[in-house]
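Let's practice the habit of predicting before peeking. Look at the sequence and jot down your guess about where helices and strands might fall. Then scroll down.
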Amino acid sequence: MKVLTLAAFLLLSSVAFAFNVQFDRETLVAPIDSTNRAEIFFSGASADDTITLSLVGEKPWMLLTPTQFALRKGENVTVSLFASPKGDTPLGLYRVRIMAESTVKERKTADLYISVERESGVYIERIIVTGDLAPTGLAHIEFHLKNYGMVTMNDISLSANIQGKDPVSGFSETVNNVNPLKTIIIEKTITLPERLVAGEYVVDAKISYKDISRDFQTKFAVSERAIINKEVVDYTPSFAGYSKTVKITNKGNKDGDYTLTEAISSFDAVFYSGTNPTSAGSGQYAWNAVLKPGETATISYRVDYMPLVLFLLAILVFSWYIIVKLRTIRITKFIMQKRMIEEGSEFTIGLELKNAIGTNVQDVVVRDFVPSVFDVKEGEGPRPVKRKAAHGTELEWKINELFSKEDRILSYKIVPVFGVHGQIALPQATTRFKFGNRAIENKSNVTAVGVASKEKGENLEDIFSKKKK
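Done guessing? Here is the structure:
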């Protein structure tokens, strides 16, 4: 008897809290890039209750609302299930099951099939992103557009933006036509910005034609990498070396180090100045730099051979002096007697020629001049040609040939016409000759006759004026 009573109580309890659930259709057709709704009806509650809903087989493009509601006795409640498949949603038939549970743990289920299809028209089937997906890299993007209809579609606007942690430029263009049931590929290559932050980025594409717009998205990842760029910003060669400036910049999104090496020989190292290298040896200089994203290091140096050039130039000038100036015919004038200048005293004047050219020289001419305060007498050796001048006598010797390294002495005598205290300076003698195609004239040293006195000596102008008196 007790068993029968318990069974009757349970039966009455189940009847008291029963409710019904039913979809408005068996299959919901959901075209791509559209929003579609199926309704779920709840009724038959024999008492007030609260119903909680869940969806088995749910996809991101499905939305059930509301997911909890009050179901009163004798009332009906309608719940909506929205299906909004996107361009990247695989086509096909999906089954979803709604689970409804009351507060007294009574559960009911109902199934719905959702058919994801494409209507006729143009869709973005897929987007493929490849390439060097890092800062400054080239990203190659392919947009696959397919016309699912039986009519050619014209003037289709395609636009795309790349979204992520850092902004990336987008683009837009017009596709002239897509033939029925055909797929075309639109290719774009973009350069990713310097220092682009690593992470996930989304290509958000959209096509528009007539009054229709369809979207499609795909994701790609930007890798973390140090991108070291080396740039020679200046290279200036010069007469005596060169200068160079190199900039090293980290255009990536990660700290990085870089070693710049330059060929600097041990010879060039002597003339090097500039940024001190981290290491040097074996004909190589190396500079190491640790750079943060966006940071730049500048290495500047110069190899200047000017000290060597100046040294060589000095050697050249000295050699020229030795060859040209010292390789010549030198003439020295000297007085053989050292005594007071007295009237009638005799002085012998010597002219010494030295041929230091290194070869025989023809047609050498030697000239000297004797002031009129002296009379000229013949000396030993060759006699000069004499010519009277306004203030004295000109002497000239012509030597047919002066042999290499030969020393030759010419001489003549002078006699003062009156006595003089001190010294009288004599004019310089000269020698003229040809060496190669050049005519050369060398002068002798300056010399004087007489003995210097403590009193101021007389010059030639005073002597000439005294003589006239």
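How did you do? Residues 124 and 145 are 5 Å apart (CA to CA).
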